[in-house]
Design a protein that fits this description.
By secondary structure, the chain is α/β, with parallel strands linked by helices. It is built from 10 helices and 14 strands. The protein has helices at residues 22-30, 34-40, 48-56, 69-75, 82-88, 124-136, 154-160, 174-180, 217-220, 243-258, and strands spanning 2-4, 7-8, 11-12, 16-18, 42-46, 61-66, 78-79, 97-102, 114-118, 141-145, 168-172, 185-194, 204-208, 225-228. Helix 6 runs parallel beside helix 7 (154-160) and helix 6 packs parallel to helix 10. The N and C termini lie far apart (63 Å).
Amino acid sequence: MRVLIKRYGLLSIQKYYILISKSQIKFITSLQQKKYRDSSGLFLAEGPKVITELIAAGFEFEHYFSISESDAEHYGAEMISERELRKISVLKNPNTSLAVFNKPEVAGVKLSGLIVALDAVRDPGNLGTIIRLCDWFGVEQLVCSEDTVDCYNPKVVQATMGSLARVSVHYLDLPDFLRTSNMEIFGAVMDGTSVYEAELPSEGILVMGNEANGISTEVEEMITRKITIPRFGAIQATESLNVATATAILLNEFRRSIGK
């Protein structure tokens, strides 16, 4: 159904907005849960930057709702009111658009270049930031343990700011993957060699651990080189760095080593 909802003075300006049905609202909001994303093969993305970058990378959308006429003109978005957008948005302060995308098919992991592997990283904000970091530092493949947070969680998608379009994320049995890999495996731990003193290659696997517990015992047994970020504070009372912050520092050092 389309309804005329805006008037300015005596002049009617025809902006026709779609009314989203209750069943559509129920289905779209259900995609906040992993089990429905898995069963449908769909995920949510909000905001013009994230959505347009996913479209540019070849992601196909099932629905694209927007309050912007520009989105309707350029991408065929269905125009809705801000009130309707609030009904389907996962954000406290909704952006201007929301799209329902098909999950892409992901090819197998290529054992080349620098690969980041995550062992049970649970926080959506951390995973989203790490995906952005991979994009920034030219890491094209991110391997995640099966108990790492879903990369299609709406909070993760939002935190990537579009970088999800350029980084291949693989979920698999991490110990098995490392066991069968012929690459050098670096682990970020507290008692390793200082990353500022280590010679770092352009290829390898960098393993980052869980926010609270670090790298699991099973995964740590497969690490061939342990590295750490040393503390420089006089008191040195800080227990650890945030996993995303640590990933940024380590990736910077890996890339800086290439130019040495």
